[in-house]
């Protein structure tokens, strides 16, 4: 329940609430959950996931919080940061879209064969990710989706790549949701929570956010992300990059499912 008492906004914790869910309700942006936590740390304690049914929380005004670290930016800011790291070129450099790395991943967001097969741009019987295939060789065929009939055409089509990354996020989001539901869980149970993981013997505590989940799934796939949440299994890509690095570095952006679901609408 969300009420105003003596000019102060308050919220009574309901069943199933997390700070992320409450921030979605009151701010329409779950990534602002830390505003609520900082205003109620004395009540909640040192673990933001330990809110209790019936707690009455103060809801501060976002522009009065004095907390400069509540968000790193919007969805486009998150994409620019991710694309700069993936491509190895700074944001705004048009050559981001034509990059190809040593394993044959291409474009601003380093698309591989398997992902573009899932998204309907490409077809191949043999592709990277299968046993014995050591890189993306791009020996299959292109479907013509969005006018893309070759690897070169894809690499020289920035608009298509920007559309495709949104499709990829939507696909991963749905697969993560389906996997968690199969275990009686939901993404909302994790958003805004701090979790500690063992990453090759190093203890790392990170906050789970929507933008971090999207980035982590882009690095290690939706099932790698689901295994992290469900089993605390930390995975790494071919170059040794930890899924936790992506979840942490690209977490905290103001992102909602509406930013990437149904990109063609």
Number of domains: 2
Our Rg estimate from Cα atoms comes to 20 Å
Ends: how far apart?
34 Å
Spatial order of the strands in the main sheet? 1-2-3
Domain LysM: 9-59
Protein name: LysM peptidoglycan-binding domain-containing protein
Organism: Hassallia byssoidea VB512170
InterPro entries: Bact_Kbp, LysM, LysM_dom_sf
Report on the structure:
The protein has 265 residues and is α+β, with helices and mostly antiparallel strands. The protein has 2 domains: 8-64, Membrane-bound Lytic Murein Transglycosylase D, Chain A (Roll), CATH 3.10.350.10; 75-102 and 153-259, no CATH class. The protein is 37% helix and 11% strand. It has 9 helices and 7 strands, in the order ββαααβααββααββαα. It has helices at residues 19-27, 33-39, 41-44, 75-87, 113-118, 151-155, 158-181, 210-231, 243-249, and strands at residues 2-5, 8-12, 56-59, 122-123, 141-142, 194-199, 202-207. The strands form 3 sheets. It has a 3-stranded antiparallel sheet. It is elongated and about 60 Å long. It starts with a strand and ends in a 16-residue tail after the last helix.
Which helices and strands, and how do they pair?
Layout: E1 2-5, E2 8-12, H1 19-27, H2 33-39, H3 41-44, E3 56-59, H4 75-87, H5 113-118, E4 122-123, E5 141-142, H6 151-155, H7 158-181, E6 194-199, E7 202-207, H8 210-231, H9 243-249
Antiparallel strand pairs: 1-2, 2-3, 4-5, 6-7
Question: How would you summarize what this structure contains?
Answer:
By secondary structure, this protein is of the alpha+beta class. The protein has helices at 19-27, 33-39, 41-44, 75-87, 113-118, 151-155, 158-181, 210-231, 243-249; strands at 2-5, 8-12, 56-59, 122-123, 141-142, 194-199, 202-207. Helix content is 37%, strand content 11%.
């Amino acid at each position: 329940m969300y009420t105003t008492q003596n000019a102060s906004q308050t919220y009574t914790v309901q069943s199933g609430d997390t700070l992320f869910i409450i921030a979605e309700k009151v701010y329409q942006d779950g990534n602002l959950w830390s505003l609520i936590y900082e205003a109620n740390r004395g009540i909640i304690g040192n673990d933001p996931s330990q809110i209790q049914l019936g707690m009455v929380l103060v809801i501060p005004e976002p522009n009065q919080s004095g907390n400069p670290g509540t968000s790193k930016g919007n969805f486009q800011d998150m994409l620019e940061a991710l694309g700069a790291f993936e491509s190895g070129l700074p944001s705004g450099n048009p050559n981001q879209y034509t990059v190809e790395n040593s394993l044959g991943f291409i474009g601003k967001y380093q698309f591989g064969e398997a992902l573009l097969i899932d998204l309907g741009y490409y077809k191949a019987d043999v592709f990277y990710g299968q046993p014995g295939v050591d890189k993306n060789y791009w020996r299959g065929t292109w479907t013509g989706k969005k006018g893309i009939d070759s690897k070169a055409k894809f690499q020289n089509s920035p608009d298509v790549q920007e559309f495709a990354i949104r499709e990829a996020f939507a696909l991963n989001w749905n697969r993560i949701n389906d996997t968690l539901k199969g275990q009686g869980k939901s993404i909302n149970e994790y958003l805004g929570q701090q979790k500690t993981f063992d990453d090759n013997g190093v203890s790392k505590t990170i906050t789970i956010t929507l933008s971090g989940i999207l980035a982590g799934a882009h690095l290690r796939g939706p099932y790698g992300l689901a295994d992290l949440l469900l089993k605390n299994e930390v995975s790494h890509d071919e170059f040794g990059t930890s899924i936790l690095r992506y979840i942490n570095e690209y977490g905290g952006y103001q992102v909602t499912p509406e930013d990437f679901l149904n990109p063609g609408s």
